[in-house]
Design brief:
The protein is built from two helices and no strands. About 0% of the residues are buried. It has helices spanning about 15-25, 30-70. The protein has about 70 residues and is an all-alpha fold.
Length: about 70
């Protein structure tokens, strides 16, 4: 039985069978509910990334303006 690679060796895109089983268990074994939960989680993270990018861009613009004035 092959062992799973150490966490430092794993790609962030590698998903183990144990992690898949945990996701299914969290949704009482319902695959459609599991997919729905994963898609909602992904949409949430994409929304957060968009907000962070907008906040970072606004901060960058403010800093550039204050440096140009100084």
């Amino acid at each position: 039985m092959p062992s799973e690679p150490a966490p430092a060796e794993r790609s962030p895109f590698d998903v183990s069978d144990t992690e898949i089983d945990a996701a299914l268990t969290a949704c009482d074994g319902d695959p459609r509910a599991t997919i729905r939960a994963l898609l909602v989680g992904q949409a949430y993270l994409e929304h957060q990334i968009s907000r962070l990018k907008a906040d970072a861009s606004a901060g960058f613009r403010r800093r550039r303006c204050s440096q140009a004035e100084g």
